[in-house]
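Ethanolamine utilization protein EutJ
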Amino acid sequence: MSEFNPERVSKLIQKVENSLTHTAQVTDADKLVVGVDLGTAYIVLVVLDHHGEPVATEMQFAQVLKDGLVVDYIGALNIVRQLKEKLETRLQVSLEKAAIAMPSNTPESVCKTHRYVVEGAGMEVVNMLDEPTAANRVLGIRNGAVVDIGGGTTGLSIFKDGEVIYTADEATGGTHLSLVLAGHYKTSFEEAEEQKKDSANHRDVVAIVRPVIEKMGSIVHQHIQGFDVKDIYLVGGTTCLPEFEQIVEKQTGVTTWKPENPFLVTPLGIAISALEAENLLES
Ligand SMILES: Nc1ncnc2c1ncn2[C@@H]1O[C@H](COP(=O)(O)OP(=O)(O)OP(=O)(O)O)[C@@H](O)[C@H]1O
Ligand SMILES: [Mg+2]
């Protein structure tokens, strides 16, 4: 795993973003792997070649999970299958190997359901790992806390000398911000969700949801008590909002960093873990 280098992380994430709309030419089709992120808000599939380069990515908004649990198995399976087929059409290859990630401390039975979704969609699961560890495949930090704030969950892992020494999972995330916005503007959840993601509205959105972000920051603060955390690294779609890192920094008193686009970090990390599990990674 490479050392933390903010420029390298930003460049990598940029490449994943580009691969949403651009498809790379594939030379070694049998060495492709897929990272499948089954989130409470988005299902994302990232395809990497054996150099670790993103070649194609597909994603879809889906509410088939709740608090990290698959609540609509058939719905989840159909979406993963459709996204896989879209990628296969774009790349003109068949995709066979995938990795998946779960929130920390997920019970074995829930892990199995995740695995069945991906297997049911026609891929072999070559690796399973927890989400913050996946995110750290991209970040490469040795010390500090990785905080992944997604749609429905906030995952936190504390790293010491490259090892995870503490994990926590809280049922809070972007869905709560959208609910607060919907209440404020008296609109539907779906409208609030769209409004929240539009960067043109970001200043207004932060003004309204600031107390909720402060609460998220204080939850992070509680969890890192008693640990020597000198840096916090934010990932997950919810942290796309401006000032997120400043608010968390203020609540925790700990230097807080986020990548330019924190949204695709975990799905990319899951895909990297598949390459590592298969010993395919060549530089
Ligand atoms: N540009 C954006 N600005 C603000 N919020 C965003 C933006 N992009 C995504 N989000 C929010 O991020 C959340 C989804 O993030 P992410 O994909 O990391 O979650 P997930 O992995 O599906 O969920 P979880 O990790 O909780 O299972 C949603 O609440 C979405 O509204
Ligand atoms: Mg997530």
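thats it. The mean pLDDT is 94. The longest helix spans residues 202-224. bye
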